[in-house]
Task: structure prediction
Amino acid sequence: MTGQMPGQGAAQGAQTFKRTCGTCTLCCKVYDIPAVPTAMGEWCAHCEPGKGCKIWESRPDQCRAFHCNWIMMDWLGEEWKPEIAKFVFTLDPTSGYLLFQVDPGVPDAWKREPYYSQIKTWAAEGLSRARGTLVFVNKAATLVMPDGDAQLGELKPEDRINIGPGGDGTIKVEVKRGQKPN
Ligand code: SF4
Ligand code: SF4
Result:
């Protein structure tokens, strides 16, 4: 959960979905994709924004396997299409965290409506199951909480977020820096 393009799994990469990307290319800008030569937050050198990938047939496996939630979850409305929302919405397959990777050119896009209220609702539902909701602008993370958002700064692969009961019905959130991943 560090702003890298989440692995959606090879099996999902082979799936087909009703939706197609069309003119959206936002995942080719917002993620840190080690296999492409461009910095995160800038259009991949292989991308024609609004058109697609110039090396589609030979694109890296990480790109090939990736599908955002808007592609996979056709109950999400058109307003959640990343080129409209200005963020890419995914579900981390390992942790169950909801992840929003925002276009750094519009860093507050996720705070607009109808997004912010819905993200808050999902964040509250997730916390009751010890699952967080993280918004990234490049590698800077914000943990969305029902009663306020916590700026976590840059998250590294070895950083961990623990969510659990804090007593008296509260929920405790702890960020452990420098922990080795399991
Ligand atoms: S963000 Fe989603 S809809 Fe947009 S190009 Fe990537 S996979 Fe397609
Ligand atoms: S290689 Fe193609 S699919 Fe992958 S990020 Fe670049 S433009 Fe997008």
About this structure: Residues 28, 33, 36, 44, 46-47, 53, 55, 59-60, 63 surround iron/sulfur cluster (ligand 2) (CB under 6 Å). The chain has a mean pLDDT of 89.
